[in-house]
Amino acid sequence: MSWLGLRSAFELAVRRLRDPDRELKAELDAHVALRVEHLIEQGRSPEQARREALERFGDFEGTRHTLAVSTRQREGRIRRLEWFGSLRQDVTLALRQVARAPGFSLVSILTLGLGVGLTTAVFAAIDGVLLRPLPFAEPERLVGLQSVDSAGNPIVVVSADNWDDWRRDNRTFSAMAIYATIRVGTAAEGSANRTTAAMVPAEFFPTLQPKMAWGRPFSSAEVREGAPVLVVGEGYWRRSLGGRTDADLRVLVNGRPATVVGVVASGQEFPGDAELWIPYRHQQQGGGARNNINWFSVGRLNADVTVEQARSDLGRVARSIRTTEPVALYSYGVNVVPLRDLLVGDSASTLELLMGAVILVLLIGCANLASAGLARGAARRGEMAVRMALGAGRSRVLRQIVVEQMVFALLGGLLGCGLAWALTRFLSVAAESEIPRIENIGVDPRVLGFGLVVAVLSGLLTALFPGWQASRTSPQAAMVDGGRSSKRWGRGLPGHMLVGFEIAMALMLVAGAGLLIQSLRTALDQPLGFETKGVVTAPVLLATPDYNRRAPIFGYWDRIAATLGTIPGVESVGFTNSAPLGMAATAFIEIAGKDLPGAGAGFQTIGGAYFEALGIPLLAGRTFAANDDTSGARVAIISRLLADRYFAGEDPLGAQIRTPGMEPTISTSGGPWATIVGVVGDVRRWGHETEPRPEIYLSYRQATYWAQSLTAIVRGRPGGATLANEVRARAAAIDRSIPVEVDQLDAQADRLMAPRRFSVLVLGTFGFLALGLAAIGVYGVLSFAVAQRKQELGIRSALGASRHQLLRQVLVSGGWVIAIGLLAGHLGAALLAAVIRAQLFGVGPRDPTVLVVATVTIAGIGALAAWLPARRAAATDPMVILRRG
Amino acid sequence: MADETLPLLKGTLDLLVLKALSWGPQHGFALALWLEERADGEMKVDDSALYHALHRLEGRELIEGSWAQTEKGRRARYYKLTAAGAKQLRHEAATWQRYARVVEGILAFSPRKG
């Protein structure tokens, strides 16, 4: 500890000794003692004198107490006044500093504002999306329930049969339900629309317990009796039913009338965008139906039951299902997941990545602000020394620095809160489809508080370096060299450390962005195995009573195929029960003459020119012909992978294959055999990042169970919105009561990649930002160092140093900082890579190409930023400096 | 005895303390003695009231206290008049004198019996 430090510590101790209570007692005791002395001199005995003295005084203890209180108050008031007075002085001084160096101050405040704004906005998103509880009663008791396959993998969907057993035999749930959404056509009050409906059993409402805006949920009795009732969402109710509360409020759903018995309050809709809740009556089928996993499931735990307890409880039920029905292939357990985690899903990692990135940007902003503070501090070294010499305590000078940085930080924080407000407004609209619940985010007092805390912490953080610098200032030394110094490292070290830090942060972000870009490229390089360009998909659900028999259903498909085929530019039209990139069923397959326990394949029923429409190549045999229908022998087409895996070295054509349990209407045990007539190319049906799996295709005219809901696949030129509109119009022309939704397959493929693109965008943007800020940092610190060492450079120049040598001197000192920063950055990049590992695809976390490119980029930009001040140093005119010195 | 002494008018004690200190710095006991001598038994001031006055005046920065030794080597708190205190004394003394004159004048005026 320096001498100054010792002295201030001593003063502090002395001040603590000046206890007002003790002083007062001493004063009053002295008074009484003097009075006693005086009375003794006048001839009183000591006892008499003492008694009289106290009597003359009056209320001794009372006086002491009241005076002590008032003294303490007075001293406190004085100290506060002094403190605030000097604080005001410091703030004024700080504001004057802002005005004195407007350029650097502005950049510092802007970068900090940017950092605080981004951090606060992302916090708002995290707060709204991840931290806020679900809007239902006791949301922590809500869980999602998932199937578990033989390998122990959870599968998000469950079978209704299994659910029915869980519901009956569990001991840990107060209620559980299943749900599935479908698109339906509705008509009410003369207006028709399409909307999303959830099919739910009566248990659904006791499970979630959504608030009702009006009426009640439907009852178990209503569901059991098949009563035509339904519940609608508040939005639908107001929009389509005028918010009326009639006892007989009717809606036509897919042409069938139903009475509205209740309205779910807005904000309480679940799942997702459901607006209608239609009763679903479950009847146990058993056998293969156990493997129809088409439902999502949600449960409400009993109070005080943990997720683990629920999991083991349902695991017991699942095992007993498998004991009685070994065919149940998704009953190797039940996965229980908090519902909130399930809903938030991938957005958690996206938001965490965002938070990480913005914190790095904030830290870089802080580093710039700190180095601005260092520069100011060094320029005012003389001033500080004078203040200290004149008796400003070290703590006083330190406080001035903290106040100054804090003023900057708060200005930045203010700016940041404004920015956060704008960003949340933007995010809540822009990312609505990417991140669930994000539409609710905004800047509330909590978020503002967060922003403020971040700003204050940033202020303290940025005061650290200038504070350290000031604490190393001794008045004598500073006075002697008048604020200039020829010390090479001692002075520059904190500033150089900051720049090194910025370089490291920038490398982290740029390398992270590089890894994600590389992942995106690798993913896109993986062939889908089918065409998306110019392909339009149109899911059609023939759910109205007109289509309850085979003939009208087939008739509809024939008519729509014919009319779509005549659209100019259309090349081929096909059908499938599950279009690529969407949901798809998995079937267990049996091949005659082979024992293949657990063999599975993707299951699809198709028709028309399906393979042509998607550009899937036929490798052997034939595709389905017009006479492959109910009258003909059952045939199947398999994918190359299925052929390779189960027919290695054999010709699969002519072999018999079947998919037990996939057609519940067929009661034959195991289902009918089909002859393999063709082999087609493999597809990545769930997108670029998935692996192809074995596929089996049946004709929808033979596997008729699936014929009611098909998706038309239309490929043509020019495709796009024009084709989509034409498809919509033609479909409507056939039967206006059938809702048809049209989408473009390439747009769907893009949407699938959207989260990855979003991550690339986030890290890429912030990487660039970090790069720019770090460049500003390098430039600032080196410029400042050059300005500070002008005299030294002048002398060197006068002593014969060449321009080249001066240039090199500055570049080398900058180069060291950049090199050390890069080294540290590689450590940081390894850390970041570990964090985003799950988002990497086909690229290692230490991918040499990415790291080299990132390193070279940053080194290059850093060198450029160092070049400008170095050139200025080289141009130093020795005479000017020497004259001034 | 208590019945015969004069009660102290509110605010007067502060003025008297300021006056006493105008002769030079004093500690509390000396001030008490000084007041007792001047009042010559006509007016009784509790020592506690004196200390209340001293602290009140110090709070208003009219006087200033600091520790020092008495002639007999005892540590005591000495009070001295500040510039503001001196100014206040002049002002209050003038006010008091005017006030006393007016009151005396009114009391000296005897009504004629009509």
Task: Describe this protein with a few key phrases.
heterodimer; A: 885 residues; twelve-stranded mixed beta sheet; six-stranded mixed beta barrel; 24 strands; disordered N terminus; B: alpha+beta
Structure, described:
The complex is a heterodimer of chains A (885) and B (114). With 885 residues, chain A is of the alpha+beta class. Chain A has 26 helices and 24 strands. In chain A, the strands form two sheets. In chain A, strands 13, 14, 15, 16, 17, 18, 19, 20, 21, 22, 23 and 24 form a twelve-stranded mixed beta sheet that branches. Chain B has 114 residues and is an alpha+beta fold. Helices cover 54% and strands 14% of the residues of chain B. Chain B has a three-stranded antiparallel beta sheet. In chain B, strand 2 and strand 3 (75-81) form a beta hairpin. In chain B, helix 2 (28-39) crosses helix 3. The radius of gyration of chain B is 17 Å and the shape is globular. The N and C termini of chain B lie far apart (40 Å). At the A-B interface, helix 2 and helix 4 of A face helix 2, helix 3 and strand 3 of B.
Secondary-structure blueprint of this entry?
The complex is a heterodimer of chains A (885) and B (114).
Chain A: H1 3-17, H2 20-41, H3 46-57, H4 60-100, H5 102-131, E1 142-148, E2 154-155, E3 158-159, H6 160-169, E4 173-188, E5 191-200, H7 204-208, E6 212-215, H8 220-225, E7 229-233, H9 234-241, E8 249-253, E9 256-264, E10 276-279, E11 293-301, H10 307-324, E12 334-338, H11 339-344, H12 347-379, H13 381-389, H14 394-430, H15 445-471, H16 475-481, H17 493-525, E13 535-541, H18 550-565, E14 570-576, E15 585-588, E16 590-591, E17 600-608, H19 610-614, E18 618-621, E19 635-639, H20 640-646, E20 656-658, E21 674-680, E22 695-699, E23 709-716, H21 720-734, E24 743-744, H22 745-788, H23 790-798, H24 803-835, H25 848-874, H26 878-884
Parallel strand pairs in A: 5-10, 7-9, 17-22, 19-21
Antiparallel strand pairs in A: 1-2, 1-11, 1-12, 3-11, 4-5, 4-8, 4-11, 6-9, 7-10, 8-9, 13-23, 13-24, 14-17, 14-23, 15-17, 16-20, 18-21, 19-22, 20-21
Chain B: H1 12-21, E1 26-27, H2 28-39, H3 47-59, E2 63-69, E3 75-81, H4 83-108
Antiparallel strand pairs in B: 1-3, 2-3
